[in-house]
Amino acid sequence: MHTRPTSLPETTTDLSTLRKLLPFLWNYRGRVVFALAFLILAKIANVGIPLVLKEIVDRLEVTGGIEVILPLAFLLLYGALRLASSLFNELRDSLFARVRHGATRNISVKVLEHLHKLSLRYHLDRKTGGLSRDIERGARSISSLLNYMVFSLLPTLVEITLIAGILLSNYSVWFAVITFVSVIVYIAFTMKITEWRMKYRVAMNAMDSTANTQAIDSLLNYETVKYFGNETHELLRYDDSLQQWEGAAVKSQTSLSTLNFGQAIIIAIGVTLIMILAAQGVVNGTMTLGDLVLVNAFLLQLFIPLNFLGIVYSQVKHALADMQLMFDVLKKEPEITDSADARELDTGNAGVRFENVFFAYEKNRPILHGISFSIPPGRKVAVVGPSGAGKSTLARLLFRFYDTSDGRILINDQDIRSVTQDSLRRAIGIVPQDTVLFNESLYYNIAYARPSASRSDIEQAARLANIHDFIMSLPQEYDTVVGERGLKLSGGEKQRVAIARAILKNPQILVFDEATSSLDSHSEQVILAALREVAAHHTTLVIAHRLSTIVDADLILVMDAGRIVEQGSHQSLLAAEGYYARLWTLQQEERQHALPPDSKPVLQNI
Predict the structure, then answer these.
(1) Is residue 133 very low, low, confident or very high in pLDDT (cuts 50, 70, 90)?
(2) End-to-end alpha carbon distance in the chain
């Protein structure tokens, strides 16, 4: 994620990055054209200033200051040109502001949209801190790149062209030759040294992203860091990355000094040669003092912006490098996509069927082996089994976070791969085992299931989830912010928020993935009653640890090692005296004797 592609030459990669940017600028093409027109007008006015200054000096020299009318007219023109240059520059800036910021906004939205389209597999593998820093730098670099190109590089090129044309047409060819040679040598030197310096910038970016990843991870896992007393360990890791960043940053700054001094040498030689020619012309009578002033003014106008070319060029290269990292995200293809003829899911009676489903997260690590079962409309099917048996994988496949390796999943006799993902997920609600909340208010987190819901609907969902009274006991009630990942709430409180969301969404298919695992026995019974009421007219899949929570299921599937080893009702499974019956007996003994956690290893894996 943090290295640039090496298979293509640097220039090819940069051009490719610029081509990717062009579609986002096309929407603002009118503004771009007018901004460029004002840019050219500003430079014409700017180049006209030394020409008027030459006339002022020559006329004052000829008249000895007696004839005031003509010099006054040129002085007024001089002021008007300066004002025009400033006006056209400001008009250019005003017009182009919408282009810069609009393109940045559009690309940022596009990247976030694309990230949401990428598969769960990508998001499980990503490093959030590094990714966020890459995207942040990439978005910022778009504005910087356009800024440098339109406000620095293009104006300088226009000005060089105009000045060289005037020198070539009005004076000895050597003026234009020396100017062109100086500019070419200057640009070549700047590009060469800047290319050499880029490796330090790339190293800085890589270590900056690495350090940011480590910092974000340590803060997200704050409690874990505290549990193990590893603050020093985290600081050492962070400092080690920053030391490498510091080393690259120092080398970058040192090499910048080399660049600046080399540029100064080239400018000094070019200016000196041209001033010698101009002075000699004045002595020979082929040039006036006004010509000398004109040439000197041109050189100042030309070399002052060129003096920043190294910085501008390096910043453009840095911006392109940062943009490339962001565009690399857009190149990643979503693993799960809608087919070309995908249609809206017709939920109908919302029956669910798994037909001979095989699945593996990795080819050499199969998870499910020929799973087949049905959830009739309005019925409840429960799945139990040890950790790693593949229970939660069933929910992920039903939501189509992954596609099956073989077999198929149907809802109302429609293969879920043939319908749109959006319509599929609208039809399913879930209460996950690990509830992660947004760092927003409780109201926002419950309303997330249906943002258009009324406040009364949201409060009713909270009541059914047995969390309304708790919320009203808080100082800020529903406006209480839950903290990063909901860390200000207990596990049970977070789970009840998740239950309220599922109730508010009111989907036709419900999935409860260990929905009461973080609740005490009393709260569990209250929530179970609410869940039974909510699920009464829904097709429901329950993934359970506590067998007591699924005794009323129409069908119970017992999974082990990715296979269904037993199935039936609670009573029939007990009568079979198999694996389920043994688990039931162990859990009943646990509840009766309140065994400590370290004495029930088998139950921990259910």
Answers:
(1) low
(2) 38
Contact between 175 and 274 under an 8 Å Cβ cutoff? The reply is: yes
pLDDT at 293: 81
The model's pTM is 0.64
Q: Among candidates 158, 173, 166, which has minimal Cα distance to 295?
A: 166
The CA distances from residue 318 to 199, 250, 460, in Å, are 10, 16, 53
Q: Which structure tokens are listed for 543?
A: 């993934």
Instruction: Tell me if 357 sits within 8 A of 51, measured CB to CB.
Output: no
Q: How confident is the model at residue 606 (pLDDT cuts 50, 70, 90)?
A: very low
Same fold, 12-331 and 342-427+540-606: no
Q: Percent of the chain beyond pLDDT 90?
A: 3
Residues 6 or more apart in contact with residue 515 via CB below 8 angstroms:
431, 433, 495, 498, 499, 527, 531, 542
| Residue 354: per-residue pLDDT | 92
Please give the angle made by the CA atoms of 594, 596 and 599, to the nearest 5 degrees.
Answer: 115
C-alpha dist (Å) from residue 49 to 93, 164, 244, 270, 455: 21, 15, 49, 22, 66
What the block records as the tokens of 129 is 């801190």
Instruction: Check pLDDT > 50 for residue 17.
Output: yes
Q: What class has domain 342-427+540-606?
A: alpha beta
Long-range contacts of 184-189 (CB under 8 A, 24+ apart): 185/266, 186/263, 186/266, 186/267, 186/270, 186/306, 186/309, 187/309, 189/262, 189/263, 189/266
In the predicted structure, residue 520 carries a pLDDT above the cut 70: no
Strand, coil or helix: 297:
helix
Say yes or no to pLDDT of 450 above 60: yes
Least confident stretch, 19-23, 178-182, 467-471: 19-23
Q: Residue 235, Cα to own-chain centre: how many angstroms?
A: 26
CA distance 473 to 453: 23
**Tokens matching residue 375:** 């959830």
Give ∠ CA 245-250-253 in degrees, rounded to 5.
125
Coil vs helix vs strand at 76: helix
- Predicted confidence band of residue 125 (pLDDT cuts 50, 70, 90): low
CATH class, range 12-331 = mainly alpha
Burial class (CB in 10 A: 0-12, 13-18, 19+), 389: buried
Q: Residue ranges per domain, the chain?
A: 12-331, 342-427+540-606
- For position 93, what pLDDT does the model report? 81
Checking if the pLDDT of 203 tops 50, the result is yes
